[in-house]
User: What shape does this take?
Amino acid sequence: MKIGRQTQKSTAISTANAEAIIVRGRDLCSELIGRVGFTDHMWLLITGELPSAAQRRVLDATLIAIAEHGLVPSVQASRMTLAAAPEALQGAVAAGILGCGSVVLGSSALAGEFFAAIVTRANGGSLEAAARAEIAALRAAGKAIPGYGHPLHRGGDPRAQRLLEVSVEAGASGHHIEAAQIVERLLPETTGKTLVMNVSGAIPAVLLDVGYPVRALKGVPIVARTAGLVAHLLEEQLRPLGFVLSHAGARAIDYDGPAPAGFVPSHE
Amino acid sequence: MKIGRQTQKSTAISTANAEAIIVRGRDLCSELIGRVGFTDHMWLLITGELPSAAQRRVLDATLIAIAEHGLVPSVQASRMTLAAAPEALQGAVAAGILGCGSVVLGSSALAGEFFAAIVTRANGGSLEAAARAEIAALRAAGKAIPGYGHPLHRGGDPRAQRLLEVSVEAGASGHHIEAAQIVERLLPETTGKTLVMNVSGAIPAVLLDVGYPVRALKGVPIVARTAGLVAHLLEEQLRPLGFVLSHAGARAIDYDGPAPAGFVPSHE
Amino acid sequence: MKIGRQTQKSTAISTANAEAIIVRGRDLCSELIGRVGFTDHMWLLITGELPSAAQRRVLDATLIAIAEHGLVPSVQASRMTLAAAPEALQGAVAAGILGCGSVVLGSSALAGEFFAAIVTRANGGSLEAAARAEIAALRAAGKAIPGYGHPLHRGGDPRAQRLLEVSVEAGASGHHIEAAQIVERLLPETTGKTLVMNVSGAIPAVLLDVGYPVRALKGVPIVARTAGLVAHLLEEQLRPLGFVLSHAGARAIDYDGPAPAGFVPSHE
Amino acid sequence: MKIGRQTQKSTAISTANAEAIIVRGRDLCSELIGRVGFTDHMWLLITGELPSAAQRRVLDATLIAIAEHGLVPSVQASRMTLAAAPEALQGAVAAGILGCGSVVLGSSALAGEFFAAIVTRANGGSLEAAARAEIAALRAAGKAIPGYGHPLHRGGDPRAQRLLEVSVEAGASGHHIEAAQIVERLLPETTGKTLVMNVSGAIPAVLLDVGYPVRALKGVPIVARTAGLVAHLLEEQLRPLGFVLSHAGARAIDYDGPAPAGFVPSHE
Assistant: This one.
């Protein structure tokens, strides 16, 4: 059966014949492999054009900022999965990527949509008025303001600060960063909370200012974290922690449901 | 319950406090973000050291070589998944990564283990004798020789040729590449088939020769393909093909099971 | 670091010691294995109580209704994944489940929330008035009305009709089914489209009327489809279709991006 | 491009037209929904035939035995994933299923292949001789004997004992169970360890004795655990534990890599 009414039946990313592979119009082997870096290639794949120096520098900075932050939930899920299923490293990576969601790791995408909406609404006029309106709209819908606050870096997320610096160094700071900073300033009076911009707020701000597409923002933490997961899964093969993590997790949780009289749960 | 007997309970990848994040011993914000590229960072995450110029160049080349090859099965699985579940881009990426298996895309890891086994067995002596022995061992176990042959690039995989060139240009060609070339030469007499080295053979050969860890080889196609998937999923949002693909797939397959008398399947 | 402020640290689903496993207060081995059916057990796991005969019959009917519908996108994604990665059947199942989304297969959950909102809003009063209000709210938010229409079963989804019959036979038809039927009647005048209730509308309607929890609705297509995927993956091992599907998919799509002069794509 | 040489292009599981859906030759709506139970349907999907009473009873017993065992690694991975990505319940289920691997949960499949190999090798003759030969073959290949031992149920896995009882009650005990019991008896002398049959040994033994296909064995823990995951994910929505689990896990692991002089990790 045919679901939906897609009328377009073409792709513009790549094609091939027996002799050559074309990626975004370029011959993969003669023009790209050995001639550009992977960050250039990622930008090319996503946008269709090779990046400027500023675009490359900002994308590099964001990928590095979010690639690794220790034994976060998605890394634990990934290491537990490899411990249980060592035959499929790709499954352990997939389990880790599935934790790139709206609450953790993937909130870059939500923050990016929020900043883009502010800039679009301002339409060249007051970013502050637009920011107030978009904050109000999120709050009216009962939604959180994405991109601010961090459970560990309460005084300021050092990655966010550094990303803004890199953006300035690259001469690439623009309206989306400005919008993100205005929101940070407005939070106390509009939400009653003082929260500082986190890495998931800074990533979309600096990327949108160099023209990265908003709908591909979630790809940045996903690609970056995949590299971090590969490092953890190599370590997991050499020093297995997956079941240590799950043992500690299980011990932290009690059972409070019914049980037969006299039943004593194991706390082993 | 405690599964297994893990005695080590430590990680060496990263740590943090409220002010700073340490990755492989380096301060993430002051030493890495804005100072190195993502390929350097990936090498650092995986090996604990920043790469040499040759190591970076070879890793870049392999990532670029395998990032994208059109509507391969894993890309189709990913695009169909986004069409069905647009609320979870991470799920569509995960579905694509799950296709990085022993047959397609993930065979780099098997080829790398094979080449490493040849080099280890040779132990400084004859690579050809070691290659013959390892080919014989695979064939005795009924296994395929990984890293050779391609359904489209029958006359030679241009990515493999280019990767070997880049390795030579980088002054980084060594025993693993030599082993891979010896196997290619031995295939007709040992297996009766003439097959040329493919990209999944060349990737581990050039990487092992610059000291990339064999157990992290599968991470290279996985990280690279994740970037390709992000590009496809951006395109899928703009021009949906997922259900066009599944419609074409379903039409290619007949039903040959039993059916009630007179039942006429739809071929819509 | 500690994310969020969870204060509760207990689970009520199961516990164990060396001699026994307790599930929802019952001894797994003496009270459940060999004494009840899997559908009873699923209801017990989810709700904490064994089902009545009507509850079991309705849950059975919904699971059977949605378990299998041929080479739908999620089944194709799953079979392609097994073809690429035969070493990990769990990965192929996961790829299939990831397609249980808001557009396909998982829309039961959205339809259930919609019907529950109508019944709650009516609060014993007019279901029709409540249905009109909830339809208007969805349309104001630019959202589709979930649970109606089918690309193949345009004249009526036979599974929906049968599920409503089973509900009546079980003496279990109530306000949620009534709400679903009212919506079907109101669609032409409120949306301008005549669409009949589909299986993803009927499943939540009949389940909510027997007291199944709305937040676990998505679990029904997921558990059911998992059984269908296992059948497809067994067939895939015996008669591989995964790459036939992807070959047909790729042939259905053209390349319309740039290419070097004279480049002729392969259509093999 | 066309991967591989699949010549068969048909499926025998289901087909449909606008009016009806045929599953394994039966009309889904008139013959199956409301007439059989989900366990019957699962057997039908996988084998093509409705089960006998003994087949249904044994399949029910195995599904119930393995559906739930508390906060095992795959459940923790799943709950952490939902906490991070609440927008995609299917992603959390997928993360849980990915932990159904060769070490945990999925070892039923390996044990089933092992028992089937014993029965095939015996070919009506001595099961003990065949068991000795297959044990020796596994040990020669450096592989574990699958299906024996449990980290909590050291004195005997009560689920395994109960499954064997159910098989006897159903009049369905045969050569595979016998082989599994012989292996248990031979373990001390052949491996130097006394280990009792666990649930992942008993599941394939009882299922193979009622004719369940060996290549679909992994589907049993996968389908069963999916139901358990749905229960945990409903509970996770009502009482979030995902980040409690990851917090406890992270605290159990130290950092032993390099760090700048004076750096003090947070243990928050």
